[in-house]
Automatic annotation (TrEMBL):
Lineage, broadest ranks: Eukaryota, Viridiplantae, Chlorophyta, core chlorophytes, Chlorophyceae
A cellular component annotation (GO) from this entry: membrane
Entry protein name: GAF domain-containing protein
GAF domain sequence ranges: 633-785
Keywords for the protein's UniProt record, in alphabetical order: Membrane, Receptor, Transmembrane, Transmembrane helix
Membrane topology: Multi-pass membrane protein
Name of the gene: PLESTB003136
Length: 802
């Protein structure tokens, strides 16, 4: 017998033994430990400075937050021609006058209530006596208490009768001259002077901050350092979010206090103005403020009414207002942005309260929002966004993949279902589903154990089965398309996903089993009635396997149309040259492209390339004719706007199109374009409407984004795209105030690229300016697109304005 002593192949440092491994890994570990220790030291120093410097930092923090709220008012006055000093003075004096008036109102109400309270003593005494009588009678622990009292009495008597017992000493009091009048006055004035001094410091700081905000912003940008754009964005976003947050909080509190006061007046609770004002003020204190403000009117209702009707009505009013404010008013005013997570809000409230006391509790939410905004804009502080934000720390595909690794397919299904509610199942497959399989493919050899691979495969099977039940699709007809996974189980899962996506597109398809490519396996595929086969691979180098598989398929079915899906290949490796070298008809890179490439075999491709006109076609054409842009009007202005769009978005071409009944006309462009030109206007290009990409924008009445025209079957053979060398295209509708779409503002580039929602918002603003030039009317504002994904299930968040 011969023993195999070679064993698994080892790395060089493994041959040296475990001690050598530790020595090799030690330097990197030491670096991590040193870095962590440095961060801990820095954090400790910062917390110490915050604690011991609170007498200076608290007024500064309050002043900055107040300046955020008052800054927009000062800016409005300055834009109206009022000097900066005068505008700041007017705003400050107005706020101080309002606060003084509020203080006088509260003082007068307190004085009135103080005079009336003695009249309620009899009612309070009668209620307490009634409650005491109801609670009279033998209790559970009466016998225990009586036994303890008897033992104490007997013990005291025994100690007094004991021989040698000493009588209690006499108490002696030393009477002196007493404190001086100056000391007494100081003791009374000191507690009152400290808040007044803090208030004065706050007023001075607010005035100085509002007086020269630009210089202060420049200094903060210099301190933040790094990228000037990121620092500027951080300060702008922080200012907008905090100012709007404070304004909305003021509006919410006022809309709560006024109904509270009116409701208490209707119920008959005295001092209703005071309690409504107190409720509005106390709601600035998170968590405990609303509860504290409810105690006083309930206590007074208890004292005034001999019965319990007034107390119950006041309690019902408070509960009703809380429900309306929390579930209707706040979502309507704050918007749908979640901002901070519930855990971070509670942790921040605890942290700032421990540092700065009750004022820290009031300032906790605005200060935490500042940290969140800084973390979103500065990479070196990005951990604040991870710790404090309510947006998921992991992206959607990674969350689903992690749940599958953790053997929790049910939660993976819940996450997927939430994502599908905001999109379509086909779009979910194209982005999220395929990305999950890519991660599983990349981890197959690198990190995944056998158990992990099995969990992912079983979990994806269960997830797809649940999604098919939730989104059933049974297209009519005999299946003419077969989907086959090339090599691994993830390839087979992608084929299963593609079959469902095709069914949702009303294309009957079937899946064939994945296996080792042999003559017996190919004969058992049963492709007699199949016209097209789509073979999917996640392998980054599948060429050898593809050639062998395709050769056997061609030998068995010569007329078969073969589409190769390379789910993990880069975009520059899917051209016709590689398709010809591998022996396939087409190469696709995404689920959407696969569905498009397989659709023309069973649908009219011309219908995909030429969508039907919109429902308001006649009114739209009349609105376009009234602009007279087809006659060359406002050509220079439209060219300038197109050049601006091309420069801002850094694309090779930007143009403005107007869609007439039969043709598309380029009424503004950033550069000369080849192609047909009109006889009346030599500078104006035109093309048939059926060939115009902007025709899809008109039909859908929505922005169209095509990251790569070569990968979109609607535009891969478009003559204008070929002639203008466009790989990337985005078109946003030119919509009038009446809702008619005249054409599109389009961007085109020679290389594939992506575009973010924030950039599309800027494109919409330029499109509104284009419409204003075309129609001689004011620009129509557009709704911004959401940048933040929805909060995960089970995560609550403080609503922060966008």
């Amino acid at each position: 017998m011969t023993l195999n002593t070679s064993g698994p192949r080892q790395a060089p440092h493994d041959l040296l033994g475990p001690d050598a491994n530790a020595a090799v890994a030690a330097p990197e570990g030491r670096v991590d430990i040193v870095r962590m220790a440095a961060w801990l030291v820095v954090g400790t120093v910062i917390i110490g400075l915050l604690y011991y410097g609170q007498e200076v930092l608290i007024p500064l923090a309050i002043a900055f937050l107040i300046s955020f709220a008052l800054g927009p008012l000062v800016k409005v006055l300055v834009r109206r021609g009022i000097p900066q000093v005068a505008a700041v003075s007017v705003v400050m004096l107005t706020v101080i006058a309002m606060l003084l008036g509020l203080g006088l109102l509260i003082t007068s109400q307190v004085s009135v209530l103080s005079a009336e309270l003695p009249a309620y003593q009899s009612t309070i005494r009668a209620k307490i006596q009634g409650l005491g009588q109801q609670m009279e009678g033998p209790g559970l622990f009466d016998g225990v208490f009586q036994t303890i009292a008897t033992v104490q009495e007997q013990l005291a008597t025994a100690l007094q009768d004991a021989p040698g017992a000493v009588a209690d000493p006499l108490a002696v009091t030393v009477v002196g001259d007493g404190p001086s009048p100056f000391a007494t006055a100081s003791a009374w004035l000191a507690p009152a002077l400290a808040p007044l001094a803090t208030l004065g410091i706050v007023v001075v700081f607010v005035f100085l901050v509002l007086l020269d905000r630009g210089d202060l912003r420049d200094r903060l940008i210099r301190l933040l350092g790094g990228n000037l754009h990121r620092s500027t964005d951080a300060l702008e976003e922080a200012g907008k979010r905090i100012s709007k947050y404070l304004l909305m909080q003021l509006v919410v509190n006022v809309t709560y206090g006024i109904p509270m006061a009116l409701g208490l007046w209707a119920i008959g609770v005295p001092g209703w103005i005071l309690w409504g004002t107190l409720a509005a003020i106390m709601r600035f204190i998170p968590y405990v403020g609303p509860m504290l403000s409810a105690i006083f009117p309930l206590a007074l209702a208890f004292a005034v009414d001999p019965g319990w009707q007034m107390v119950l009505m006041a309690l019902a009013l408070i509960v009703f207002l809380e429900l309306v404010s929390n579930n209707i008013v706040e979502p309507m005013l704050y918007g749908t942005s979640t901002g901070l997570s519930a855990l971070s809000l509670i942790a921040a409230a605890t942290f700032w309260t421990a540092l700065w006391g009750p004022l820290g509790l009031i300032l906790s939410t605005p200060l935490t929002v500042c940290l969140l905004v800084v973390g979103r804009n500065l990479p070196q502080l990005a951990f604040f966004d991870t710790l404090l934000g309510s947006t998921p720390a992991l992206d959607l595909p990674t969350r689903i993949y992690q749940r599958l690794i953790a053997n929790d397919p049910d939660e993976a299904y819940e996450i997927a279902s939430d994502a599908i509610r905001t999109t379509e199942i086909a779009a979910f497959y194209n982005t999220t589903g395929m990305e999950v399989l890519r991660q599983a493919s990349d981890d197959y050899h690198a990190n995944a154990r056998v158990e992990h691979r099995l969990r992912v495969v079983d979990g994806m099977d269960q997830l797809l089965e649940d999604l098919r039940e939730d989104h059933p699709a049974t297209p009519a007809g005999t299946p003419r398309v077969a989907c086959i996974g090339g090599k691994w189980q993830v390839d087979a899962i992608s084929a299963e996903m593609l079959v469902h996506a095709l069914a949702l597109a009303d294309i009957p398809a079937v899946q064939r089993a994945t296996g080792t490519v042999t003559a017996r396996y190919v004969d058992g595929l049963d492709l007699e009635e199949i016209d097209t086969v789509c073979i999917g691979y996640f392998s980054r180098d599948p060429d050898a396997a593809v050639r062998g598989f395709v050769r056997r398929l061609r030998r068995r079915w010569p007329d078969l149309r073969i589409v190769l899906a390379l789910w993990n290949a880069p975009e520059d490796q899917a051209g016709p040259d590689r398709a010809e070298a591998l022996g396939v008809d087409k190469i696709v890179l995404s689920m959407d492209e696969a569905v498009q490439r397989l659709t023309p075999a069973h649908a009219d491709r011309a219908a995909m390339q030429a969508p039907p006109p919109p429902a308001d076609e006649a009114a739209r054409l009349d609105a376009l004719a009234q602009t007279a842009v087809l006659d060359g009007r406002a050509r220079e202005d439209l060219d300038d706007l197109a050049k601006r769009a091309a420069d801002v978005f850094d694309v090779s071409l930007a143009f403005i199109s107007a869609i007439d009944a039969d043709a598309e006309y380029i009424v503004g462009q950033s550069a000369d374009l080849p192609g047909r030109r009109t006889e009346t206007e030599p500078r104006m290009n035109w093309m048939p409407r059926a060939e115009a990409m902007c025709n899809h924008v008109i039909a859908a009445d929505d922005t169209l984004v095509v990251p790569d025209t070569d990968r979109d079957v609607r535009f891969s053979d478009n003559p204008a795209v070929r002639q203008w060398q466009g790989r990337f295209y985005v078109g946003t509708p030119l919509r009038t105030a009446d809702g008619h779409v005249l054409g599109a503002l389009c961007l085109m580039d020679r290389e594939p690229r992506q575009i973010e929602d924030a950039e599309l918002d800027l494109l919409d603003k330029i499109a509104a300016d284009v419409v204003a030039v075309m129609t001689d009317q004011d620009a129509v504002p557009t709704e911004p697109r959401r940048e933040e994904p929805p909060a995960p299930r089970g995560v609550l968040g403080q609503r922060i304005p966008d």
